[in-house]
User: What shape does this take?
Amino acid sequence: MGDFWAQAFRELKADRFRTRLSLLGVAVGIFSIVAALTLVDALQKSIREGFSVYGGDLLFIDRMPLEPDLDEAGHFRWWDYALRPEVSWREFRYLEEQGGGAFSELAFARYGAERVGVAGAWRLLVPGALAEGRGFTERELRDGAPVMLAGSGVEARKGVPLHPGDALWIEGVRYEVIGIFARVGMNTVSTVDVDQVRLVPERTMKEGAERCSILLADADEAAVRALMQACRRLGPGQRDDFSLNRLSYLLDEMTSIFKLLARLGWMIGLFSLLVGGFGIANMLYVSVEERRPQIGICRALGARRRVIVRQFLGEAAALSLLGGLAGTALVQALLWIMRLLLNARSAGTGAADLLPLFLPLHAVLSGLAAALIIGLLFGVSPARRASLLPPAEAIKK
Assistant: This one.
């Protein structure tokens, strides 16, 4: 077997120009396939890790839906949603009092320009661990105490990090910092930027806010919908003026996008592989013509046709695998450069961890398998032609 592959590589080295042209087509195709699969794998891993932080599927009560609710004509009537009332503190209190077993925990969040006000189970909003200090007490949340949990990236003043016991002034209110969240870096599904968050009791905020929402854990969607309809006094035939959104919808939508990206990468890669396959076939046809005397002598000495076929298929396989390895090496080099750039720019912010830029084994194996199949498919015809050459006529050439 070693002699077989050694002979195949010797024949490829004999005509380096044609070998390099054929390698280029295969390498570009494998680069497209492996790069697409690597990107999809990195995005999926990042998204799943982001969802796993919450420990389950959260239900959000918001004014706007994540999933477009189209009318009978297929139009998204965004103006109807813009006229909906904002989710309110009164509704949060109603769910808290009347919820029963419809959910395990709930929280109210008011998103402002400089801080996020929260009531209830505040860890639904920021599930990360605290690096310093302590969390909110129920009394602080209920009474609206001027205390704050801050992200690790929030500074007391430029260049000076915050610590428990420090104070921050926001909109005329002095907040005492009681806890600092551990640095988590960027998160693809987080509702807030944890490293820059300023989390305060909801009752310390003024009325103005960008939006409000209610978060529920382990929620029965039908029961929560019924409670909201009762709270807003909606009749059986009336359309809901609120939206129930689940994080799982985002995961499903992103999964479909990832599959589309993978298919696109395969399409581009296979097109390039076909070009490389034609290059392999053309190279082998030329090689057959140039080596007719050699093939004739082998046949005259008793070499069987399958030996000739195997020899040329070995050359096609070796050429395609070399192209596959070259394409994979290009992807690895690109990932290495991207990691260096991200590490240089992130400077400890955690942005480099947003995408796990590593070459997955299944992407490498898929790319090499595709390259090998293309090489063998396009090597069959010239190999068969070489095996069918009459020994006498081949020697005369």
Observations:
- Residues 2-52+252-396 form one domain.
- The first helix runs from residue 2 to 14.
